[in-house]
Amino acid sequence: MKHNGKVTRRDVLSGGGAAIALGLAGCTQGTGDGGGQFGESDPLLTNDRWGKGETSLTYRTSEFYTPIEAESSQPAAAPALREQHEAWAEAHPEYRIEVAYPAFDQWKDDLVLDASQGNAPDGSTIDSSWVADFYEYLQPLNDYVDDIDDFFPFVREATVQDGDLLAAWKYTGCRCLYYRQDLIDSYGDGDPPRTWDDMLGLGQDIADGEDITPFMFRSEPFDNLPYFWGQGGELVDDNGAPVLDEDGNRQAMVNVLSFIQDLVETGVTPQRVANISDVEDLPREGRNDQLAMFIGNNDLIEREFKNVVEDDSWQRWQVAQIPMKEPDQFATGVGGWTEGAFIEGDGGKAAAMKDFISKFVEPDAMARYCAATNFLPTRESAYESEFYGEDAIEYQDTFRELLKDGVARPAVPIYSTIADEYGSAIERVVTDQAEPEEAVDRMITAVNEEYDG
Q1: CATH code, domain with 295
Q2: Is the pLDDT of residue 18 over 50?
Q3: Dihedral sign, Cα of residue 99, residue 104, residue 110, residue 116
Q4: Highest taxon of the source (predicted)?
Q5: Residue 303 has what DSSP assignment?
Q6: Domain that includes residue 348, residue range
Q7: CA dist., res. 26 & res. 362, Å (int)
Q8: Among 140, 284, 295, 439, which residue is least crowded by beta carbons within 10 Å?
Q9: Do 329 and 186 lie in a common domain?
C-alpha cells in the first residue's frame, strides 16, 4: 500500500489503530529545554511546536490531530484543536510542546520500547486498543480530569486501573443497525428487528415482496463480535489468555454462526456477503435502493448518506441497536483514540503535560471536536454541552444510548489471531464449507495453538 501521509476518518473509526495502514510524517523530536527563543511575531502554534515557553515537553501524535489546518489530515477538526491548544499555551507560558509525528507502522512498537527503557515522551496519543500495553508506564490523570464516572462504562473499564485514570479517551464510534424505515413500516410493525428471529422473519417478508437484498454485513470480525458479546461471551480472561473453549463462550460463538447460516439459507442474506470488505459498499447499495438493512459504523449516516444524497431521501435510513439472540441483550463495538502522560511527578513539567492531556476530555472541548468530526463523545456531559447541540450529529441520541453497552476489542496479543480466525469461520459458514460447530472448533484449535505455541 502506498503511504501518502493522510489518515481518513474511516481509518480511525474502523476498529481503532490496527485498521490504519497508512504512514504519517517522519518522526521529529524536540531538542530539550532552553532551545527556543520566541518573539512576539512568532506564532503561538506551529505544526511541530505548541506554545513558546523556554521549557520543552515532548509529545507524539498523528497529523490527524494537528491544530494547523493546512497540515492536518482532518482539517475540519483543526479549529477546535487550535482553540484548545492555544488555551493551554496561554495558561502555561513557560512551556512549549515539541511535537513528533511517527510513522504509524512503527509508532506502537517504538513507544513500547522507549517506555520500557525509560525513554518515553512526556505524552502521546495512544490508540484505545494499545492502552493496556502501557498500564505500567502511564501516569494517573485523576487530579486533572473531573468526574471520571461521567465516562461511559467501556471507557472506565479500559482506562482505569486500581482507581487511577491512566488515559484520556477523547472520542469513539460504534456499530449499529441501519434500516429503511419505509420498508420496516410496510413489512413490519414500524420497529426495527430487535432479535435474530425478528430479523429472519422480517427479512424473508422483504425478500418475498421486494426486489431488494434484505440484510447485509461485512465479514470483518469487529462488525460481528457484538452478537457474541451480547450473549455475555468473553474472548480472553483477565490474563489475556483465550477462553473460547469454555462452554458458555463456545456456545455463544456457535449461536452466532448458526444465525449467520440461517441468514444465508433463508435468503435474507446472499452468499456474496463473504466478499463484502469495503465500508462504502453497503451504504452505496442502500443509496441505490438495493438494500434494506445492514450493519455499519455510526459515521456512515453523515458521510455516506446525508452528505452524498442530494435530496432528503437519506432520511428514510434510520439507526438502531444491533439485533441480538434475545431481546434483553445489547452490545456494540467501540474504538477511538486516547491521550496519555508518561512523565512522572505532580508539579512542573509533569503538571503541564497532564493538564494538556486533560483538556482533550473536558466536556466542552470534547464536544467541539466531536461536533466537527462526526465522532462520538466518550462522556455523558459532552452531549449536553452548548458546543455539541441537538443537531451536531444525526441520530446522536440513539448512538449515545448504544454506547452504554459498548465493548472495546481486548488489548491483548492473541486478539489478532482470534479476529483472523473468526473472520475465516464466518466465511466458511457463509460459503457452506463448514457447519457452525465445526467452524467454531476449528477456530478454537487455531487460537489455542497460536497462544500455546
Answers
A1: 3.40.190.10
A2: no
A3: positive
A4: Archaea
A5: I
A6: 9-172+335-408
A7: 30
A8: 284
A9: yes
